[in-house]
Design goal:
Blueprint (H helix, E strand, L loop, with lengths): L1 H16 L19 E3 L2 E3 L14 E4 L6 H9 L6 H11 L3 E2 L5 H14 L18 E14 L2 H9 L1 H7 L2 E14 L5 E14 L21 H21 L27 E14 L4 E8 L5 E6 L9 E7 L2 E11 L2 H6 L1
Parallel strand pairs: 3-4, 3-5
Antiparallel strand pairs: 1-2, 5-6, 6-7, 8-9, 8-11, 9-10, 11-12
Helix pairs in contact: 1-6, 3-7, 5-6
Length: 348
């Protein structure tokens, strides 16, 4: 009778929480939310909840900071491996990026090239230079929070169904994970986008001493891997990243990125908006009334003309120079020579 009572209570518990035993995102039939396969632009068995792009946005490398604290917890405490394979699968299945290898496989790629240089490979192996594809973007993953703790639902179940059910519920635990994916443009170093994702998994630890001797049929509920919740959180992050990229608009700074910005600090040499140009000093005339030299600079692409005055005689007439413009005015002290006699060589 005791075994029958325990089995009956277990049945009630499993019926009540059968929906909770699934990941909160993705297909409930998938082993994780990153499942199936990918080849080129096609995929098989992909999570139906994974975002998809009609065409790739560019090439993608994935960089995992193995010295970060989250990575040490992932590998040492949770005994999980690299997150890169999961992210590669998600990225290719989505068709939002073409993935290029920049991780551990890179050493094998370079080894083949060394073999080609040594003459050991067949002549028609075609391992010449200039064939590797550049990575337009780098995707950087991180895990910002993860925990595994006992859920507070144990007491509630115990109150409703008695001591045995309360003991069963005491074995129900939740695993939480929060992740961030950051997308960086490799040419400029500018962060393009970032997205946070999260997931929760409920683990039915029904073996907690109650079912010893009853049978191993419920053992599958006792060990839901922590890795599943990490994968689900990264899938959530990736989906949010793709949604943000669909509406992407480049951030614009007046005067151009990296030219000084608009936020100034006390004591800085220039307090205005700084723009850098290349151009030719086409005119230099002495003005007796002002006792200054009057100059005319035309930008290298001939799209803009600037005039300014200076007490100093700048010895770069007809030469190509680099100079700064602060709030629309040329800074004479910033002028630097690039090439002599540029006007005579190219503009006459």
């Amino acid at each position: 009778m005791r075994i029958l009572k325990i089995a009956a209570m277990a049945t009630v518990c499993l019926v009540m929480f059968s929906g909770c035993a699934q990941m909160q995102m993705g297909s409930p039939k998938a082993k994780t939310t990153a499942t199936g396969s990918a080849a080129g632009s096609t995929s098989q068995g992909a999570n139906r909840g994974l975002e998809h792009c009609s065409r790739p946005l560019g090439t993608l490398a994935i960089h995992e900071d193995t010295s970060a604290n989250w990575y040490q917890v992932l590998t040492n405490n949770w005994h999980l491996g690299s997150t890169v394979p999961v992210l590669k699968l998600l990225a290719q299945q989505s068709n939002c990026f073409v993935v290029v290898e920049r991780g551990r496989g890179m050493s094998d790629i370079m080894r083949e090239r060394e073999l080609a240089k040594s003459g050991e490979l067949r002549r028609r192996s075609h391992f010449g230079k200039g064939q590797m594809v550049a990575a337009d973007y780098t995707l950087i993953p991180s895990i910002t929070f993860s925990a595994k703790n006992t859920s507070g639902i144990g007491g509630a179940i115990g109150g409703l169904f008695g001591r045995v059910a309360g003991a069963i519920a005491g074995g129900i635990k939740t695993s939480d994970a929060s992740t961030i994916l950051t997308l960086v443009d490799n040419r400029s170093g500018v962060q393009i986008a970032a997205a946070e994702g999260s997931a929760r998994n409920i683990d039915f630890n029904l073996m907690g001493g109650i079912f010893s001797g009853v049978g191993a049929g419920v053992g599958g509920y006792s060990n839901t891997p922590e890795g599943k919740v990490i994968v689900a959180a990264f899938t959530d992050s990736f989906n949010k990243l793709v949604r943000a990229l669909r509406n992407y608009k480049a951030q614009r700074v007046e005067g151009g990125l990296g030219t000084g910005g608009k936020l100034k600090v006390q004591g800085s040499e220039n307090t205005g908006l700084v723009q850098r140009y290349e151009g030719v000093i086409v005119s230099r005339k002495w003005n007796p009334s002002t006792k200054r030299y009057d100059y005319v600079i035309i930008t290298k692409d001939r799209s803009e003309k600037f005039t300014f005055s200076s007490r100093k005689k700048i010895p770069y007439k007809d030469d190509l120079v680099r100079f700064n413009v602060i709030d629309g005015k040329v800074d004479p002290s910033s002028i630097r020579l690039i090439e002599r006699r540029y006007y005579q060589k190219y503009w006459q």
